[in-house]
Write a structure and sequence with these properties.
It is a single chain. It contains 26 helices and 8 strands.
Length: about 625
């Protein structure tokens, strides 16, 4: 078996035992290889059965890749240890090992323990079209009944959110709230708790604490910016002005933190920056111009936009919040009613979505008999991409974990699934809790990058150390978080160029206004990219078109814009649709169409086809 030259931190992650371990693994740090090697070492060196391990990944593709990696490593080990019966047995058990997504694990829990619940084990997982149809049926029935009974709370909501003959805005709000709370282990209890935050009577509430925190954070930022230009202003005409600015801002911050909100409102109403003194002949014009520009166009604008908005006293806020409480309470009640009806309809059809499966599994694991059985089965629990977990996922893991058998891998900087209700604060909290490396817990940072060149990593570090701070990102981009490399290659800093597209313009510029209104963001970016390519080719004759690649996050949108722009500038282009052709909406619709041509009794492909451009039916017409 090939020997890897692991870094000290990688080796520590592979070898540490009898602790819960959190691996903060930066991009390109070899975290999958480390996780795989840890599993292989447990199997080959400690004779652990692979069936006693639970390995959770974020996607089915990642789970399949992990299984393949483990199997390949074990075959390599077997080549050198041909008579090892334990390894032969483990290879035969890989296909049945618990290497899966959280959703697949939840399905296994439900089906293995269906006798403890009221769920038919032959349930079907609903696709998007089915979910939309059942939701529409549920909400339509509720709204009909509310209108018929002239429900006062409901009519209050329609007055606020609905337009004449159109309740779509209110319906979408109900859907959004419902979807969001599914990431909580007790959805309705959590929602009721949030509603009560509107029922306030004094400034000693969470609401005003958040306002004070927002003000203090803004002032900290302003003080930092002022201190930066103060260093530049020393020995210039503006030195006294900037020193006075800092003193005033610090005074405001003390008011917020030591006195209170109302005192701050009194002060901010009268607050203003002093008039800059007349420049002296000895002043460096470039320096004073920068100071003036930052003070006028950044600091003053932040004060006007972010601080001057707080002009209403607390008693007015409290009255407004109490008035809002009735509407928010009514909204919470209708979400609860929707949840009940929607759940009942899914039970009737024995069709559930992934959120249901997570909550069903969590409810079953509250039964000590079930959780003890699962806990006994898994001696080791591995969780990849932990930064994209949520409260429900974390509660499931906690219910089956022992004192020291968890191995989390993730990178909060790579958390991109907020739209799927991922909660990176869970990772951050565990990162802070594990910092001390206690008897049962350890934190290990893998920050060495083996994938990218030094110039790319330096650029990334430069950007993120300036924008990723605890006040806005819940963590600082500090030395531990920075991407590191052993690559000492020198490079030209001009090799990396960052382009910002500023769409702001003079409203009187009709020509530009018309161009922007007829162009999407992709159109603008594609045109800019084409111009950059032409410029590169003109400046460096050694470059060929085939040397250039344009990377996009997905094929979902924008590829036609690039084709059009490149054609306009006579740039030959090849777009590789192969890897994602079956994910394209038009292709998936025609696959569904072929399915119902083959068998008209397939409900889900039929619904998908009817609701597409092929059928042109709406949910209301189908139901």
């Amino acid at each position: 078996m090939n020997k890897m030259n692991w870094t000290p931190k990688q080796q520590e992650a592979i070898d540490t035992r009898n602790k819960n371990i959190l691996i903060s693994a930066a991009a390109g740090s070899g975290k999958t290889a480390v996780l795989t090697q840890r599993i292989i070492d447990l199997i080959t060196k400690e004779n652990v059965d692979i069936t006693s391990m639970l390995v959770l990944t974020f996607t089915n593709a990642a789970a399949n890749e992990m299984s393949a990696r483990i199997q390949k490593k074990m075959y390599e080990y077997l080549e050198e240890n041909r008579n090892n019966k334990h390894i032969k047995k483990q290879i035969s058990m890989v296909s049945g090992a618990s290497i899966s997504t959280m959703h697949s694990f939840c399905i296994d829990i439900i089906r293995e323990n269906f006798n403890f619940s009221d769920i038919d084990p032959n349930f079907v997982i609903a696709n998007a079209a089915t979910v939309a149809m059942i939701k529409q049926e549920s909400i339509s029935g509720i709204f009909e009944e509310k209108y018929e009974n002239q429900d006062e709370d409901f009519l209050l909501l329609t007055d606020i959110y609905s337009s004449r003959y159109d309740d779509s805005k209110l319906i979408n709000i109900i859907y959004k709230i419902y979807n969001f709370i599914q990431s909580k282990k007790e959805p309705m209890a959590w929602l009721n708790e949030q509603v009560e935050k509107y029922n306030i009577s004094s400034t000693d509430s969470e609401y005003f604490a958040l306002i004070r925190e927002d003000i203090a954070t803004t002032l900290d930022d302003l003080i930092e910016k002022s201190e930066t230009i103060y260093k530049m202003s020393i020995s210039t005409s503006y030195e006294e002005n900037i020193a006075e600015d800092i003193e005033k801002l610090r005074y405001l911050r003390d008011i917020v933190l030591k006195k209170g909100y109302d005192d701050f409102v009194d002060e901010i109403k009268a607050f203003s920056l002093s008039r800059l003194k007349t420049k002296k002949k000895t002043d460096d014009v470039q320096v004073t111009d920068v100071i003036k520009d930052v003070r006028t166009n950044i600091i003053k604008k932040i004060i006007d936009k972010s601080l001057k908005k707080y002009t209403v006293k607390s008693d007015s806020y409290i009255k407004y919040m109490n008035k809002s409480y009735n509407a928010v309470r009514a909204l919470c009640n209708i979400v609860a009613e929707f949840e009940k009806v929607y759940r009942q309809k899914k039970y009737e059809q024995n069709t559930f979505d992934f959120n249901d499966l997570e909550h069903f599994a969590l409810d079953l694991l509250k039964n000590e008999e079930i959780s003890a059985k699962v806990r006994k089965k898994y001696s080791y629990i591995f969780y990849d991409e932990y930064q994209d977990s949520n409260e429900v996922h974390d509660s499931i893991i906690e219910s089956i974990a022992a004192d020291n058998n968890l191995f989390f891998v993730g990178d909060v900087k790579q958390s991109i699934y907020g739209f799927r209700l991922a909660d990176p604060s869970i990772f951050i909290k565990k990162y802070e809790d594990y910092k001390g490396n206690t008897e049962n817990n350890a934190k290990i940072d893998l920050s060495s990058n083996f994938r990218s060149s030094r110039q790319i990593l330096d650029f990334c570090n430069l950007i993120f150390e300036n924008i990723m701070v605890k006040s806005t990102s819940d963590m600082d981009y500090d030395e531990d978080a920075m991407l590191k490399t052993n690559d000492e290659t020198l490079y030209d800093e001009k090799n990396i160029e960052l382009n910002f597209i500023d769409k702001s313009h003079d409203e009187d510029d009709e020509k530009l206004e018309e161009m922007l209104s007829n162009s999407t963001d992709d159109d603008i970016m594609a045109s800019l990219t084409a111009k950059q390519i032409v410029k590169m080719m003109e400046e460096d004759k050694s470059i060929n078109f085939k040397d250039i690649v344009v990377l996009k996050r997905s094929f979902a949108n924008g590829t036609s814009a690039y084709s059009k722009a490149f054609l306009q500038y006579n740039i030959p282009v090849f777009i590789d649709y192969q890897s994602s052709s079956f994910d394209v909406l038009e292709v998936s619709i025609f696959i569904d169409l072929l399915k119902i041509i083959d068998n008209i009794r397939q409900d889900l492909p039929l619904i998908s086809t009817l609701m597409s451009g092929v059928g042109g039916f709406s949910i209301e017409e189908i139901t």
